[in-house]
Design goal:
alpha/beta, 277 residues
């Protein structure tokens, strides 16, 4: 797996933190210094943290588990959707639905409701409805699609959360912490890193900054998915070979069994001696 490029992070502005007066003291270990009243993030530590997070994400993907990407900030949500879609992972870029993790069955019901509306529209059931009723259902479908359309394939709780701006997405982080789901987070100097399992200290406001971090992490996830495919292909090939060998050995065993079970030839009966007169 390729290491993260320091120069790319620098060019993307990953080192720019928040104003010094808005800092969270818990971020002190990741701060290099201060310039014009703005904290500067230590990118050497950012590089190391991205590599650690990428390795962990790769392992999760290799096991065939889902990673939920979360980021509702206007300037970064498009790039989050693009990168998550490229690796076929679920994402939330609109308002975080309260209880999405802690009350997951209810969220799944809402997703199924959306699927049911689609089914009824296709089979012509809604043909007899008035324009007003049809408009209401269409609006309801559009609202569900906007908020939950990106998690249709999430049939069970995700194995990890990747959060951009852990301060803004505090509810998502809190729910994940409560359920013991590991959190990977892009954490700026104004945020608390203590509730994040894999901290990536970086600017979480700039699109370029978030994109370069997502590129590295999503590449690692894609690598893990490819390794999983290769492992599955090897397993299928091994199974097919074992079956072929078993089929080939079966006739030999059958012939041997037939030979062992063949009845012994009966000895010819002795002729009876004529009775004496």
């Amino acid at each position: 797996m390729a290491r993260t490029n320091f120069d790319q992070l620098l060019q993307a502005g990953c080192h720019f933190g928040h104003l010094k007066r808005k800092w969270n003291p818990a971020m002190a270990p990741y701060i290099y210094g201060e310039r014009n009243g703005i904290h500067i993030i230590d990118l050497h530590k950012t590089v190391a943290k991205i590599d650690d997070a990428a390795e962990a994400l790769k392992n999760i993907a290799r096991q065939g588990k889902k990673i939920l990407f979360v980021g509702t900030k206007k300037q970064t949500k498009e790039v989050i959707a693009e990168k998550a879609t490229s690796i076929n992972m679920p994402y939330v870029i609109e308002r975080w639905p309260g209880g999405m993790l802690t009350n997951f069955p209810t969220i799944r019901k809402a997703v199924k409701k959306m699927a049911n509306i689609d089914k009824l529209m296709q089979d012509g059931t809604f043909g007899n409805l008035s324009k007003r009723e049809l408009l209401q259902i269409t609006r309801q479908r559009a609202k569900l699609e906007k908020n939950l359309g990106s998690i249709v394939d999430l049939t069970r709780l995700p194995s990890a959360l990747f959060v951009v701006d852990v301060m803004k997405e505090a509810n998502a982080v809190r729910e994940a912490n409560r359920l013991g789901i590991p959190v990977f987070g892009v954490v700026d100097t104004n945020s608390d890193p203590n509730n994040v399992d894999f901290v990536i200290p970086a600017n979480d406001d700039a699109k370029d900054s978030v994109e370069v971090i997502l590129n590295a992490c999503c590449a690692a996830i894609a690598e893990g998915l490819e390794e999983r495919k290769a492992e599955k292909a090897d397993e299928k090939a091994a199974e097919a070979q074992a079956e072929a060998e078993a089929d080939e050995a079966k006739p030999r065993r059958t012939r041997r069994a037939r030979k062992d079970e063949a009845p012994a030839e009966e000895a010819p009966a002795e002729e009876e001696a004529p009775a004496a007169e």
